[in-house]
From TrEMBL:
Residues 4-125 form the VOC domain. Signal peptide: none annotated. PROSITE patterns: VOC (PS51819). It comes from the Bacteria. SUPFAM superfamilies: Glyoxalase/Bleomycin resistance protein/Dihydroxybiphenyl dioxygenase. It comes from Polaribacter butkevichii. InterPro entries: Fosfomycin_Res_Enzymes, Glyas_Bleomycin-R_OHBP_Dase, Glyas_Fos-R_dOase_dom, VOC_core. PANTHER family: GLYOXALASE_BLEOMYCIN RESISTANCE PROTEIN_DIOXYGENASE, LYASE, PUTATIVE-RELATED-RELATED. This is Glyoxalase. Pfam families: Glyoxalase.
């Protein structure tokens, strides 16, 4: 038996703001929500993976940095410059502002939050 990641689902306060954020930061393409006629919006994470943004305007969202999802890019340094140009604050794993964390295996990573407070890691582990 094998398992593969299909999608990540996040509850969001404002689905339109969240879609705009993920498209602005990652250029994610919106795809059809094939599951329902709800206001949930789907974005493609490539290779058949999806990000589902589920509107929950009245829910309190609590999370911490250890609860995150990670995306990898071979253009890590270029991505960091983009984040800086978008004035998105990022930290290393130890919460040092505008610092890149270098893991024991030499991979670089940064952390930042989306409009709902969810933590996102971006690394160069490709």
């Amino acid at each position: 038996m094998s398992f593969f990641i299909n999608h990540i689902a996040l509850s969001v306060k404002d689905v339109n703001d969240s879609v705009a954020f993920y498209q602005r930061v990652f250029q994610l393409k919106e795809i059809e929500n094939k599951a329902s006629n709800s206001n949930t919006r789907w974005l493609s994470l490539n290779e058949g993976k999806q990000l589902h943004l589920i509107p929950r305007p009245n829910f309190e969202i609590k999370t911490n940095k250890a609860v995150h999802f990670a995306l990898s890019t071979s253009d890590f340094d270029l991505f960091v410059k983009k984040i800086e140009n978008l004035n998105i604050e990022y930290t290393d794993w130890h919460d040092v502002p505008n610092e890149i964390f270098i893991r024991k295996d030499g991979k670089k990573q940064i952390y930042f939050q989306d409009p709902n407070g969810y933590w996102i890691e971006v690394n160069n582990d490709v």
